[in-house]
User: Fold this.
Amino acid sequence: MIYLDAAATGLLKPPQVAAAVADAICRMGNDSRGTHPASLYTGRVLLETRERIAALFGAQGADCVAFAMNGTQALNTAVKGLLRPGDRVITTVMEHNSVLRPLYEMENGGVQLTVIGCREPSAPRGVLDMEALEQKIVPGVRAVFCTHASNVTGNGNDIRRIGQRCRENGVLFVADVCQSAGMLKIDMERDCIDVLCFTGHKGLMGPQGTGGICVRRGIAVRPLLTGGSGIQTYSRSHPREMPSALEAGTQNGHGVAGLLAALKEIDRIGLEQIAEKKEKLCRLFVQEVQKIPGIRMYGDYDLPLRTAAAALNLGDEDSGYVSAWLEQERGICTRSGGHCAPLMHEALGTREQGAVRFSFSYYNTEEEVLEAADALRELSRLCGY
Amino acid sequence: MRIKEEKAVITFQTTLQAMQAERSLKEADCPGRLIPVPREITAGCGMAWCAPVQELDRTERCLRKSGLVWEQTWRMFL
Assistant:
């Protein structure tokens, strides 16, 4: 099997991750629920992971990092915990449904939503209209929700520029870094990010079921879930202190132990090394497949800020057919269809056809990339292009 | 009958603060351990740092030096 679906989940992980999860299952008690060794062990793992996450994203401290079960939970927390009826909010067509659907819910409840499109509507490059976004960021807007990179095309957004504009105008900036974490540089302070939502199982190479939300000190986010916290037991309301404020119930200690192992490995290899390798693989892929008759690429591969994802179609073939053929005939795993990003596909003009996304991890090889390009070449020939 | 000894008990608002304190104090070789908060006192977090009472000043100094916050300091017989 050749796994080229890292943007969906990072199947290829450092071996230490699975070992850490297995070890944690045998050793972990429930964090914050006692002072026996098993409970304290979990508390120490969570603490170290929070610290590493804070360092990776430039958060102010471990107290700013609350765990969640995935990026979707983190984003739902940000959307529903920051907005109230009447608020004006801005987002973009590049967002995933994990942002759009909670925003639509809030819109039904009285939030005014503005969606910024791409520079060229219904065109394959899919680059955000940054000028239009900046014009909308004015005093009185409650928040901007923007992804760091499209999960379809891999196109990156200049979150620093967006963040600075937000900060100057007193607008909250919520960044979705689910696609970019573990590849692109992120610094909450430098990039003026107020709330950052991440997942642990994609570029961070941790287990599924991990992720979180980083909140700048002084910003109150209402919790999505309330319940047991291990503190303030006799209070009728959930604690307001971070990170307990946004964590209710037993945390996924086993998953977090795996995430910690992955973060240590990312530190050991170096984020720049990882980014360089992934960029190189993606560039090689694009360079090879662009020459194939019938191939149409989506995304801007000249952008300085990109993740290692590439989307394409072969003529008018159904993207699902192409993806299934690649898997059945050549054992190549990709993701077809709409990628939970309806507005991005509408902007690309691929609502009906969808697209086939190839996404690369640090553990893919050039041979695998060339094999994928060769498979597309064969299919192109078979389809008569 | 169990003989009670005077102890220093430091309470915290959150579990995170307690875990940060434990690590800093252990790294500084400050004697003590995390215990469930004694019923005589109230605290946000259910865990407290318990140390020999003569170590109280050193413990607080170490926490301050590490930039850590805590809720309250108590002296009590445990």
Observations:
- Chain B is about 30% helix and 30% strand.
- The mean pLDDT of chain B is 94.
- Residues 15-27 of chain B form the longest helix (13 residues).
- The helical segments of chain B are 15-27, 56-65.
